[in-house]
Amino acid sequence: MARTDSSPEPSGLVRTVRFADDDVGSDAARVRRPGGRSAVAIMSSGEAGRTAPGGSAQPSSARTADPARRAGPAGTTVLAGGRVINPARGFDQVADVICADGRIRAVLPTGQAGILGQAGILGQADAAGQAGHVPPDATVIDCTGAIVTPGLIDLHTHVYPGLGDFCVHPDRAGVDVGVPVVVDAGTSGVRTFGLARAFVEGPSVRTRVLALLDPCLLYLATKDFIAHRLEIANDPRNLDLEATAATVEAHRDMIVGFKVRATVTDDPRSSPFLEGTKSIAGDLPIMIHLGRYPYTASLGNLDAISALRPGDIVTHAFRGHSGALVDDDRAVEARFAAAVEAGVRLDVGHSGADFRFAAARALIDLGYPPFTISTDLNLFNTEGPVWSLTETMSKIWALGVELTDVIAMVTSHTATAIGRADSLGTLEVGRDAEVSVLRSETGDFSFTDGFDTIRHPRRLVPVGCLRAGIWYKAREHLAGPTPAGPTQTAAVGAVHRPPRSVRQASAAASAVAAPVAPGRPTGSG
Ligand SMILES: [Zn+2]
Fold first, then answer.
1. Distance 223 CA to ligand 1 centre (A)
2. pLDDT by residue (tens digit) across 229-254?
């Protein structure tokens, strides 16, 4: 594999090993510590080993606990020379992100790593970022030609394998595809949540997992909708709000809201599960989905949307036949408009059958873009049509949304949606070092929503991510289908603008759109 060594940075403190184009997609990213030491391979979680910055490679057999959670990494890592896009700050320029001891220490113009005594762009560099405190053995990851963002957050995943048959390993949705933080969207109810937590904090998981809790005592997201087929998802005896509130209180560091299946009992216009959850939710958001469940009756889409509070979340919002659109996609339902106006947030939640280019294009054109982009990644859509969060981001980009907005929809917006804007979603000095590195490729790419296909000359591919300061190289082959043709890495600092307007892209989408079929059951996620 080709690798091109770069010249030392002007400061003389850091020396990088630059990714050649054919190196980025190889098994291991290359980094080099200054001083001419041997390059060390930073392996993804699925590879044979892992190296903490400043540490030594460990064989997989040595994994006894997540070092990121256990003690935090020692040493300093510099993500050097990338195009840093931090939507929360309106920041978009070439810069170095300096992290140490698992935290962000400074974000500075590239080449200033040796003079960190100056104020950082995003705030005063703290003590560890002062001149002389970037140690000569800092690990430098050359991000030239790449995009550096706050750590991506996937708001809708299913990541408790073993609870039901629906889930992927958290790292498959997370660090393996450049995403340091994922949110499990209601795979588990109350009585199994402790087991879910024990798993995601176990030795095999490197991704940070947050949770939206299903308020039922027993709920499992499964392919056969077992909680619906046995009719416990609509049995009021399955609801114990006191127990639910106690579980939330005991796990406030992990539970960031609720995922409610808005099933009904006697009154088809009101869901005791949704209303009960609202009574205990306080500031925590409630996510509902659009679409039907088999076996159990639930609120109609507009009734469900109208019952939400400001800050609550509608996932699968762009699935078509969602209750959002009327008049052949030329307008939205008044109740839908009122809910969004009041602050209800629209989430993609792609899944296998819950995202349609035509519906997304229509809603975006009408002024209803996603607030958040998420995958609904589960065992049944990882090899298409979903693949990964970056593949889903590429689809929204292809529909004409600006790249910086696309990035906001998986960083600052998502952090806001889960009430974690004070700790996630933006690059701020002193915060945990959750940082993603992406590559923007130019080529002729086709994207599928599972029904229709559109083409676009750009796509995003994960390079890797820092999670609590530890670098994980992305397993790129998991993140999307093989490109159709030769690709070219975008120039650093280039202003990425969609080459087609929303309406032009929409026209392309509608040209291939088949008539929308009546809603099909969509998996109990
Ligand atoms: Zn789901």
1. 11
2. 999 999 999 999 999 999 999 999 99
User: What does the block give as tokens for 139?
Assistant: 């690990």
- DSSP type of residue 404: H
Q: Tally helices (H) and strands (E) across the chain.
A: 14, 24
Mean pLDDT of 126-134: 48
Neighbours of ion ligand 1 (CB under 5 A): 185, 376, 525
Rounded to the nearest angstrom, the distance between the alpha carbon of 519 and the centre of ligand 1 is 16
- DSSP H helices, 35-93, are 67-70
Indicate if the alpha-carbon torsion angle 290, 291, 293, 299 is positive or negative: positive
506 to 286, 396, 399, 457: CA distances (angstroms): 31, 11, 7, 15
Identify the CA nearest to 494 among candidates 113, 48, 46, 146.
146
Asked whether residue 462 carries a pLDDT value surpassing 50, the answer given is yes
Distance, CA 315 to ligand 1 centroid (Å)?
Answer: 8
Q: State the number of CA atoms in the 13 A half-sphere of 492 facing the CB.
A: 16
Q: How many angstroms separate the alpha carbon of residue 158 from the centre of ligand 1?
A: 6
pTM above 0.85, yes or no: no
DSSP 224: T
Q: Are 213 and 183 in contact (CB under 8 A)?
A: no
> Does the structure show a pLDDT above 60 at 273?
yes
408 phi and psi angles, rounded to 5 deg: -60, -35
